[in-house]
Design a protein that fits this description.
2 domains, Dehydroquinate synthase-like, alpha domain, Rossmann fold, two-stranded antiparallel sheet, binds nicotinamide-adenine-dinucleotide, about 50% helix, about 350 residues, single chain, 8 strands, alpha/beta, 13 helices, 6-stranded parallel beta sheet
Amino acid sequence: MTLDFSYQGSASRIVFGRGASARAGEWVEASGCRRALILSTPQQAGDAEALAGRLGALAVGVFSGAVMHTPVEVTEEALVRAKELEADCVVSLGGGSTTGLGKAMAYRTDIVQIVIPTTYAGSEVTPILGQTEGGAKTTLRSPKVLPEVVIYDAELTLGLPVGMSVNSGLNAIAHAAEGLYAVDRNPIATLMAAEGMRALKEALPGIVAQPGNIEAREKALYGAWLCGTVLGQITMALHHKICHVLGGSFNTPHAETHAVMLPHTIGFNAAATPELLQPVADIFGGSAGQALYEFAAAIGAPTSLKDFGLIEADLDRAAEIATANPYPNPRPIDRASIRLLLQEAWEGSRPEM
Ligand code: NAD
């Protein structure tokens, strides 16, 4: 094997442990801050208020307007609030949508971010920001958006509904799987990807069987951290590109789209590079795409794009958009093969590899 790579470790401080979010105030102060604005979605406003209560004088307010896809208007509203309150940091409590809002604020102002993730999406450990303006979603990478501190507390994930846990976990596995064959893959990301996938493979069935199982929740969160870290280090390929097209142009739900597409995109690439995807085959047992398909079905994940209201004619346009601009992928991509891949995902059939 030839070793030829470039690697940069993450600058984020990771704090992991049951009950760790109780020490959020210490991390606000350790970051040199005194005036935290707590961010959340409307659905998690109660949790955000409770967190503000625990932070006491260190919390200057709560902004509970975070929504999916980080619309620029919401970011601007939150920035006005932060300025009025003279906030010197944000504490983002929630999933990728809330983290996205904090990142969008940091991109514009460099405000310090402390993130307390409550899903397995992994955004908290990437320097990637996706945002929407006028209905168009764009993605950028900048060191400015990487959060300074991430506090993983499995106790806060006990209430994540089983369906969302499954889809979010498969979203995380997708980050790791693409890290294995990325054009800029590296040995550390590969180690993290395998460990992260193994943790989620063990944890997700335990969560399905018993949503309040703290050991399973903790293992899933550990896997999410590892898989998210991989995403932060590598250039995404076919899987993430297709999910971006489906979410951005057809408004399909984020984590569910990843869950449906994963076996198909990985199976497609496994045909070209089975050796790089061997960790997936080893962990899930079988050929990479088929093994992921069986795993996702066994834990009750959605299996077909049809269920999101897509019609067959949408697949033509999706294939066209997904192949309009070239990007690195281990297996060459053309419109006909991507159209076929989308057809299989739409029908929910078992991948061939
Ligand atoms: P989300 O943040 O949109 O959360 C979905 C819903 O679940 C929200 O209503 C939220 O309040 C609620 N929720 C979250 N945690 C909960 C809990 N523990 N208990 C009960 N309810 C809870 O979902 P997500 O999948 O985490 O994030 C999706 C978004 O993140 C997308 O916009 C996606 O593009 C983005 N994302 C970005 C990156 C990146 O690196 N930039 C990576 C992954 C995802």
